[in-house]
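Sanity check

After download, print the first record. It should look like this:
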Amino acid sequence: MTYATTSQATTYHTARLTAAAWSAVSAADKPLAIQSAADILDAYAAGHGGWRDDVTPAAVPQALTNACSELALTLTDPSALERITAQQQGVTSLSIGSASESYAGNTAIGLDAVLSPAVKALLRPYLKLAGGSVHIL
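Expected structure tokens:
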């Protein structure tokens, strides 16, 4: 299931400071970024008990459309992807002068490195398990 169309993502970004960055993404890459973002959101949801029952292809909450749009842009940003890759490899700090890196012992960061705190906050109300607890209505 996808959570945003190219048109919805364009509307989302046009109303934000990210408008120029989204406009710079090629028309061919936009739907690919949206589908990749949806796949990542589904994987994150699976790790948190799945989506609540009221999240269906016919009823996608606006917050999920926004989260998908936000993540789609991140996936098209080469510098963001470099940072995410470094985090997944366990890099915890980097210095440019004298070029040094520090690594954490645990590199199992996974999706936490890809999803920003803002995107996670958008998703939280729609997850069956949010923060390790059961979502209460």
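If your output differs, re-run the checksum step. Summary of this record's structure: The chain is about 50% helix and 10% strand.
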